[in-house]
What does this fold into?
Amino acid sequence: MTLLTAWLFIFLYFMNNKYGSAAVLDNCVFLGEEDKSSLYEDGDVVIGGLFPLHYSPVFSLPTYKEKPITNMYKYFSSRALRWMQTMTFTIKEINGRSDLLPHLKLGFHIHDSCDDIPVSLRASLLLVNGQPDRGFRAESMYRDKILKNNGSNLGCDAVRRTVSSVIIGDAGSGVSMALLRSLGCFHIPLVSYFASCSCLSNQREFPTFMRTMPSDTFQIRALARLVSYFGWTWVGVIGVESDYARFAIQLFLRESVHYGVCAAYTHFYPVVVSQQALDDLLNVIQFSSSKVIINFSGESEMQSILREIMRRNMTGLQWIASEAWATAKSLWEKSGDLLMGTLGFAIRRAATIPGLKQHLTSLTASSLHKSAFLAEFWEETFDCRLNGSVNTHSHGSDNFFDRQPCKGTEDLNDVYSPYSDVTQLRVSYNIYKAVYLVAYALQDLSNCKVGKGPFLNGTCADPKNFKPWQLIHYMKRANFSALGEKVNFDQNGDPIAYYDLMNWQRAPDGSLNLVKVGFYDASLPGHSLVINDSVIQWPLGKKAIQSVCSSSCPPGTRVVRRKGEPICCYDCVPCTEGEVSNKTDSLECSRCSADTWSNTARNLCIPRTTEYLSYYEFMGILLCVASVFGACLSLFIITIFISYKDTPLVRANNMELSFLLLAFLAICFLVGLLFIGEPSDWLCRIRYPAFGISFALCISCLLAKTAVVLMAFRSTLPRSNVMKWFGSNQQRASVLLGTAVQVKICFFWLLTSPPHANNNTDYHGATIIKECVPGSEVGFWSVLGYIGILACGCLLMAFLARKLPDNFNEAKFISFSMLIFFAVWITFIPVYVSTAGKYTVAVHIFAILASAFALLFCIFVPKCYIILLRPEKNCKKKMMQR
It folds into this structure.
């Protein structure tokens, strides 16, 4: 039925009510068929009730060639009948109390909403506008009597049942929304016991709505936390085509993002599930990698889905139930193990409602003949036909008129029925609280004192003739206790949310055992979800199944989202060197501190190893021994030269320069020791200048020695005065002058940008290389360049002295030593640049030692050989021979 049709009904009903006419009079027209299946008891205040006693309609298109028949429905809900009976029980309980509404009698008028919007709308209009009394309408004699006594202007109020100023219902969110949009403008309060859609919390759109059922906002938070708790980040979400499911799924998709949960798919199916719709749904479920399914639907839709799942033999699914079917035991009877392990949040359960069990089971023959609902339940439960039955509904393929008559000995205590099962009083408890909400509001309305009332000029409402909007005022402020629980409502008319987490377990006899395995309490900040994992029974095995798009990234890796896919689908990329992640599913890796580095697993920062050329390692020891050996050898040769200083060979080799050269070579050997050990700023500032100056001294001495040799032989030519410029003072001065330039270079180097110690972590992240950096690259290469210039000058002098006498081969030895010197240092440059750490230092020391040994061996070892082993050649005659 469209909204336009609904408004037409409202207009006609209220217009009839406004202008007044009677159904028995010619000018009073009652539209539609009289509903003979309602349950009515008169009272000062009649509370309306709507319950989905029937559901799953069998649709048939009317041809309008004959009067359209009322829709038939496939199923009768024994559970909804218990809800209805709970309402009648609660009203009778309140009427029996002397402390609550002692001067008012509550009545009830209950209709079947059939979980169908058109039927619910029609029933709600009958509740708020009244309907003709069946007895009055049927008995013409009584009609004539009234006409005779009261005249022809008798209004509808005289012949209709008392109207309901408040309605308890409906169960469905979509139906409740339709009722509110139709009746809301008349300010008629609607109190739902099972409608949970968060959309109904909108007080601007639905100001007359209240409920004893928590809003889906809280259920969705609980569901998001539940799937996150078990690590289910890849879940399927399905729901029936209704406002309830649409709003719930929309909320879940928005809330689940905060917990890293993604929807593998979302799928809606119609209320009346066709085979095509089932195939579409089951194909989505079957071919998805997600094994966890959240279903927002009612009991009837779930039954159709389960039948198709059984036909396809689909197993291993973890169902998450919305509160609409979390405790629907009838599903277990038709599905068996398919629902074993199901988890779902159920609304708060009452431990017991005293006297309800007896009220439910004490059905009498008179009550069965009085109510078509009870008669239908009795006949469906015992598969028999009551004598004079008022039931007109049939279910199943057999004609219910062919059933055997009931024996009269049937007893509800002998059979199991959801109707008489009071072990899971959840919705029933909500109905119990809803009726008490109205009762306490009426009590507050009755206690109003004239002049102090909440309405205009301090007026009060008449308890027996109040307006619906006046009752809403007190209902919004209700605060009472029911069965020991404090009941109050927030500004949206919603109660404080509390859910039991239920687990569907198989009992030893094969029946369903609903076990509470946790709870969600919205009043507990931060720790609202509590779960006892140890008592949960799972669909497969003894632990929760895995349902993820991508497995968790272990410590040492980070999450990299896949482009174009949900955030739950990602790749795990190892952290780079120097970065770690120490928790699962890290979005980024953390950089280690300057003095730490990542371990192999990339999950822990460990102290970096320190590297420098140490005296205690093999390479350091070897180079240290070589340096000391070179220095000792130089001193040994000095000793030899001193011992044989009067021999022609020693005298002819410029003894003073030879001693100086040997001494400076010893220093060069010892300078290598400055490059071994842990670097420090002072050591670095000594190391490079000592190296440069010591080699400058050596090459300067060698240059002076070569020049003297060359000039000595040139001075033998006639009229040559050259030797007067190469005396002892001049030789010393040339050495000092050649060294002074290097000293100045080193001085400016140390003054502008001196060498210093540095911790190098760029070459190898896990190692701190302690090294001396030059500070100024210009200074370092200037020192090396100046040594090269001196060596080139020396090599040039030696080349010019190549034609000296053969036995005096000093120039040849110098030339050869310079060639080795150049070879060493030219090789040193690329190796020095391309290496790092202690190997750079080792290359530097090797170059120092190699060039020093080249000078020592090429220049002095041949002389020592003649002095020590061939003394017969150590004479002037032999030396002068060509």
The CA atoms of residues 25 and 152 lie 8 Å apart.
